[in-house]
Structure formats: C-alpha cells, structure tokens
Amino acid sequence: MNRVTISMCGLFLAVAALATPAVAQEDPAKKTQTAKTFWGVSAEKFEYRYSDSDEELAVIEGDAFYGTDGLKFRWLFEGEWEEAHNAWETLENQFVAQTPVSDFWDAKAGIRIDTPEGPDRVYGVLGLTGLAPYWFEVDTNLYVSDEGDASVDFEAEYELLITNYWIVSATFETLVAFSEDKEIGVGEGLNSTEVGVRLSYDLIDRAFSPYIGVVHERKYSDTADLARDSGGSTEDWFAVVGARISF
Amino acid sequence: MNRGFLIAILAGLMPLPLLAGEYDISVDRVQIDTGDFVKEGIGYNGASPGPVLRFKQGEEVTINVTNNLDEMTSVHWHGLILPFEQDGVPGISFPGIKPGETFTYQFPIVQAGTYWFHSHSGFQEPDGAFGAIVIEPEGREPYRYDREYVVQLTDKHPHSGDRIMRNLKMSADYYNRQQQTVGDFFAESGDKGFLSTLKDRMMWGDMRMMKADIEDVQGFTGLINGKGPEQNWTGLFEPGERVRLRFINSSAMTYFDVRIPGLEMTVVQADGNNVQPVNVDEFRIGVAETYDVIVRIKDEKAYTIFAESMGRSGYARGTLAPEEGMTAKVPDLRDAPLLTMADMGGHMDHGGMDHGDMNDDDMTGMDSGDMVMGAEMDHSAMGHGSMGHGSMGQGDGASLPEDPFYAQGSGLVPTASNGGKFLSYADLKAQSPLYEDREPTREIELRLTGNMERYEWSINGIKYEDADPIVLQYGERVRFKFVNETMMTHPMHLHGMWSILDVGEGKWNPLKHVISVSPATTVYMETEVDAPGEWAFHCHLSYHAAAGMFRKIVVEGGPDGTVAEGTKTGSQGGES
Amino acid sequence: MNPILKNALLPAMIVAISSGAYAAGNHAGGHHGGNAIGEPGNAGNVSRTVEVTMRDNYYAPESIHVQPGETIRFKVTNEGALVHEFNIGTADMHEAHQEEMQMMVEHGVLKGDHIDHDMMNMDMGNGHSMKHDDPNSVLMEPGESRDIIWKFTKATDLEFACNVPGHYQAGMYGDIKIDSTVAAKDRVEGESDSESVQ
What we know:
The complex is a heterotrimer.
Chain A (H helix, E strand, L loop, with lengths): L2 H17 L9 H4 L5 E14 L4 E12 L4 E11 L4 E14 L4 E10 L6 E12 L3 E10 L4 E12 L4 E12 L11 E13 L6 E12 L1 H9 L5 E12 L1
Chain B lengths: L1 H12 L6 E14 L4 E7 L7 E5 L3 E8 L8 E3 L23 E7 L4 E6 L11 E7 L10 E10 L4 H10 L11 H11 L1 H14 L13 E4 L8 E4 L5 E8 L6 E4 L5 E6 L2 E8 L1 E4 L4 E7 L6 E7 L5 E7 L50 H5 L65 E10 L4 E4 L10 E4 L3 E8 L5 E5 L4 E3 L9 E2 L1 E4 L4 E7 L4 E7 L2 H6 L2 E7 L20
Parallel strand pairs in B: 1-4, 3-8, 9-12, 11-19, 20-23, 22-30
Antiparallel strand pairs in B: 1-2, 4-6, 5-7, 7-8, 9-10, 12-17, 13-16, 13-18, 14-15, 14-17, 18-19, 20-21, 23-28, 24-27, 24-29, 25-26, 25-28, 29-30
Helix pairs in contact in B: 3-4
Chain C lengths: L2 H28 L8 E2 L5 E10 L2 E3 L2 E4 L4 E8 L5 E6 L1 H16 L10 H5 L15 E4 L4 E7 L5 E5 L11 E6 L20
Parallel strand pairs in C: 2-5, 4-10
Antiparallel strand pairs in C: 1-8, 2-3, 5-8, 6-7, 6-9, 9-10
Helix pairs in contact in C: 1-2
C-alpha cells in the first residue's frame, strides 16, 4: 500500500470520527423514540449476459450498508464471472464510509480491493453519490491505485415508469484513466463505456424484480489497443437476463 | 370478552366510596387477519385492536399492564390529561415496561370523550398495539342518541414497522405505487399539450419532488375495528335511531376521508372535546385524531362506512345495518390527488429555482414568489369577517370549496363525493370553552422540515437526536406557530396539555390533541401550560416521528406532582 | 358551493325562507282540524305552564304529554352558551326548517352565540327578510327567556326541536305526546329519564 492509499484510510477514519454523533446522554428518549441505525443488502444487478460473440458472463453488483443518517459503512461488490475462462474477469470489493454533504448528495471515502484473475490492485476511493436534478441517480469516484495510477468512473441511471411496476432503467457507465496501467489493461484517457437498457417488473415489493435487457460495452483508444493485443474484443452487445434484489 | 371481564372488575369495585376502577391489560403477540393477509403483530388482551376501555369522568383508574413480549413496551393514553409520570413515553415519562413485568398506571380521569391508547415503544403501535378509550361524562351527554359504536381505523401493512422504516430509509419511494408514469405523461400531454406537460415534469424533476408523494406507505389494508373490507365490520341499528360513531384514526401513516353514502353526519366531538354540532357529508381524519359523529337513520337498509385513504391507495369499509349480513354498495376509490406547486411553499425559496420559468397553470397567482400562501394562511390575521365567501377561490381553485387550512390551490383540498359539505378545521368550534381566552405570553415558531429523498424528518431542521428540549414555564400560554415547509401533511401531537387550534373564533377555538398541518401552510395553536413535567411532542406519523420529527417539552415550575387547574373555567367533555 | 352561484341564488332563497316559514305558521292556524300541529293559543285558555330549559345541546325536559285541545304556556329559557331554538312541529317540518336555518348561518345572520338582528331584519328585496318570527317557534340568544302559548288540537306525535344547524341532528329535540288516554296533568317528564344510551 502506498502513501496515497494510507492517507485515504486516514481520511476515512477522520470522517468516521467526525460523523460519530456526540449523543446527548441526558435524554434517554432519544434512544427509545428514534430509529437510528439502518441496514440494507441489495444487488442492483444479478444477471447473465450473452454476447454477440457468444461470450457468456455472470455479473453481480451488490451493496450492503449499515449506519445512521449521518454515517454509513458500505460494502460494494462488483464481479464478472467469465464462463469461457471459468474465472473472475472483474472482482472488486469496496469498503467506504458515506456521509451527506448536501440535500441530495453523499460523499464517500474508503478503499477498493480488486482481486480478479490476473494482477491485484488496491485503490483509495473518494466518491460522490446522489440524485441529480431530473431524477438521474449519479455515482462518481476517484481511484488512486497502489501503483500510483489515478482514474475516475462515472455512472448514471434513469428510471422510466411504464407503469408503477414495469420499469425501464437506462444506465451509463464510463471509466477515464489519468495514466496507463498496462498490467490490468487500463490505457490512458477514455477507457470504456457501458450503456444498458433493462425492463424490469417488481414481482415482490421492490425486493425481487426480474428483468431483461440489452447492454453495449465499448473500449476506446489505448485501452482498446491493449484489449486487442491480448486477444479480447473492443465492442460487445449483450443480451441480459437477471433480477434486482433487495433485502 | 375482555370488556366483560373489565366491567366485572369495575362492578366489583363499585361499592367503594370513591369512584375507582381497576383494569388489567396484557401486551401479547397476536395474529392479525385482515382478510387480505395474516400478519404476526402485537395486541392487548390477546387481540388487535385491544379492548375498548370505558372510564367515567371523575374516576380514579388503576391499570395493570403486563408485558408478555420479549421486548420493552409501554402504554400511552393518547389525549388524556394526567400526571406526566403516567403518560407512558419511555425515556420521558418513565423507563418503560420490561418483558415479564407488570406496570401499574394510576391517574384520575378529568375529562370525557373518545380517546385511544397505544404503545409508545418502537413500532409496536403500527404492529397493532392500540385500543380505544371511551369516557362517560360526569353529567349527562349533551347529545341524544340511541346507541354508539367505536369505529377505530387503521392501516395494517403486511410489513413490520421495523422493515417499513428500513425500506423507507433505503428508498423513500419504496412503497409509492402511484408515481406518475409514461402513460400519465401522454394522457396529460393530450389534455394540456406536450410542451406544457414536459415543462411541468421538468419543473418537478428539477426540484427532485414528486407530485404523487402523498402517502409514504402504501400497500396497507384499511381496517375498522380490526376487520378488513371483506370482513366487513357491521354495526346494527333500528330504523329511526340516532347512532353515535366514535371515529378514531389509529393508523401509522394514513389519513382517511370518511363518508357514509346516504347519510348526513353531524360532527359533535373532535379529539374528545365537544364541538358545536356541524352537519357534513364527509370528513378527513388525520392520524391519531378522533371525531364523533351522530347519524340519524330513518330507513331500514344498510349503509356503507367508507374510509378512503387521502392518497386513494386503499380504504377501510364497514357497514351500518338493521341486521347482520346486510350490505350496501361499496363505492370505487376516487382518483388519486396530485400535489401542486402551491403545496411546495417551503421548497421554493432555497436555491436552484428560476421563478421566471414558472408561468405554468398551477402557478396562477403565485408570480410574486412563493410566499403568497404564507401570507394568506396567516391565521393570526383571520378575524370573523375575513373568511367570507368568494374571497379565496381563484385560478384552478375557483371551483373548489375554500378551506383556509390548505394552501391556496393545493392538490390536497378535499371535496365531498356527493358535492356536499366536507368538514374543515374552520368549522370546529368548542361547545363549551375550557379555558378563558387570553393573550398568549409568547410565540414559538416550529418549522416542520424534512428531506423526503433521505426520509429524514425534523423540526426547525434539527432531528430529535440533535435537539434540545423545548422549555415552557408553568402558567404561561404559548402560541405555537407551525410552518410546514415540507410537502407532506403532519399531524402534530402534544402530550399532556391541550392544543387550542386557532380557527379565528377566539374563545370558541376548539381544543385538540392533534393538529394536522397541510403542506405549505402556517397553522397556529395555543397551549395553556398547566401540566408540569416532561412531555413528548411529535408528528404522529410513526415513521416521521422515529426519523426525528419529535421533541421533548419540559414544563418548568408549577405545583409538584399535581396537574394544576390553571385558568380552567369549565369541565371537559360533557356538561357539568 | 361556488360563491358566485351562491350569491346569484340568494334572492331566490330568501323567498324560499319566508314562504317556508310562513307555511308552518299559516297552516298551523289556517286549516281547521286538518292541521296536525295545532295553533297559537290564547293566554286566557292556558291550562298550565311548562318550563323548558335549553342547554348546549339538549332540552330539559325531553318529553311532554298533552291532551288534545289543551293550551299550554311554554316558558322557554336558554341557559346554554349558544343560540337555540324552540320550535313545535312535525319531524318533516323541522327538516324543512333546518334548510332555512342553514341559510341563516351561511349568510352570517346566525352565529354560534348570537344573532345578527340587523342582518336578520334587513329587507332583501320583494319585502322578504330572514326574520324568524313564526308563532310556533322562538330563536333565542344565551340568557334569553320567552313564552309560547300553543293550543294542541289533534292526537298526533309532534316534536319540539332546535333547528340551528346540527343541533337537531345531535339530538336537541323533545317529544310531544298528544294523547287523550293519559291524564295530561303532571305528565311533564323529568330530565333524567330520557337517556337510552347504552
């Protein structure tokens, strides 16, 4: 772990210390009359992907949190299991602390550990997540790896209600790197985009919502070259089937 | 069954010179069957709702509450005037009742009327821990009726209270299934034009507010006295009788619009206090409020008691019938209302809003910014004459009956389904004032605030966990100014002391224990601070209170340990 | 109601009030023998005085027995804090009168605890006003006391009632039992026997 990551962890702890509420002990009703800590486990994506080049993937994006209005601890999990290689193409675990910074936005800080097939990486994470005007859910993060490479990702999602149970969600993700990390296939500049459209139905409350959809992935410039060099594709269309799950 | 038991106990104690009654209540895990689903819950004496406790004004009651749960519990006597140690709020009145423990409440009954009781611990109340209280006045009832029924409403949800709170925190619109859809967009485009509809959606989207955000928790089954619409609670009558119905809204979250098609209702009591009778076709009952109505039934046929939720996502139904098994038509739910820009008062002044953009239909009359309704809603300025007919309606609202307790042009203004009279707070006048009318000694402004997206609720922007108590002095008369800056309706409940709702009628202003404050309105209440000790004060929507819309009130001074008489001039409830 | 509509209808409603109110009085005295409620009585024929107290919102007593042909002086006192009426009629007549009283409230003539007499006596055009001056009824402010002398003609069930909006519905009425089989003397029932509440 290099210095940047260590300082990130320091920040993490500082945030944790700051946000720990200085509970006024004199009023016991603040305990009995207030619901203070909450938890949740969900998988925004839990899906099977089948590409136009017959590639098969299992994709999971999971999220578990515990905390208060003022401070949440979050474990974010992202994995792509590649059928052909019997291996995790992507395997990310993020552990972040999250705290509100405005009415609609939260700041995040923490650590991300990538342990896919191939070289591992550890990153410090600083992020912003929230709801933008016109109901766009936005999540963006700055990562600095133990190799000293920095990158930024950006995700946005918009939900269109066909009915109150049939929902189309459109997602857009992109990754931009400030420096190359050849080992893990990251080129400088715009790396990739992923655009998805999924039609879901809320079958059990919002706890289980099966969906089908289409996802388009594309790699750009240096990153595309790196992918080509290692025999990978630079553009894929996927048909997806899966479910949104929330406990 | 339980009632019989209680009466037996009461009868056994009758020979005592002092009017005193002893009552036993057990807090139990129960099954609640709504007809739509069966849910594990919490009840009293083995059932939810619990028993109807019948007290007599002047009685000294002793109530033994045995906790058969494996968690702490409490019983709060909602609306009763009593010593604060008996008020049943864990952490404020007392520590709570431990599992297996029996706690004995003891207090004098100083009032008459319809009230209720419920747990003040966790989400036991939404889970079913509530019952009704009926207090017979010392003198005669000032009304004449042949029989009476308690009609206790609730919004039973298939999820437990803990789970609902957690889901709301994860996603504030978790339970909202009335959100505007693509179909609504095109339907509205057809009516109002594509551009104007798009503009409207952009405006709301810009603020990240939802027009359909009226009921946080949908998906419930409305119950009357524990019975779902299919199970059809039925009250019997003989044709020609007057029947008193004691409506109690014990919902966690749901306001109901109540009507009995074919019958006019005469409202005679609100929150346990007699009001000058007012004839209505329909009324809205806020969470934790009570309204007593008398209906005069001439014909030998069945009538449906129909209680639609304010957001029209569900309903409770019962029947008044000459004999068991008779039913009447159950009306369809009316269309769900939508909030308008008028309901947005508080949101429009902080940042991001370009007022120039808002020359939309909804905005008629609001071109001077956002404070139009603030000014017009100022009830302090509301004399007898200022509420004259014709002075309110304008723009879209012209065809609606005016109600000064809603923002002008609000989407929430209720109308009676038969086009008749819908009860307004403005119609409520005390039948016999309890207190002398006097100038308040000071005013306290309480802004009702929140962040819907995060499901955080607060007062003056501060959640209970971060707030200092509100300190009042014994003997003062405090004027509370509620400014609702949110887009939700909040039923504010003060424990231990009466809330005198300012309807502009001076000494006839009615006494309540819950004051419902509509979005973007300012409502005043006054309180004679005549009860020493520490009291709870909160929004009675269960999940708003738990999220932080809650305060402790400390009354300093006053005679020790007694409920002082203050400036009371008469007795409460019935005639003396 | 739409305020504009309401104002437009006002004159028409005033006509309705006056004629409706008269109807009760005229019919009372007019149709000999065919009228149910009786007629204004002469002081000289009064056989007894019945004291009626009005409170918020009930009468004491709540039931009175009379004999056909008997003339009674009702001494009515409003001991309540609100305006109340004492009106002798059939249930249907009361119901009709309630609509008129509702209008008096809507037009500010009748307040909870007082009557706007100026407004009530105001000529609304066509010689009509919202006067409340029928012989079978008195409308009184708190503290007032007045007499009505009434002759009951026919054996039938009548009610005395307060038609201030909401009051009758809430039970502010009493029964007048006109019954020749019962000795009318001393048949004024007490205040306490009328409650049939469970």
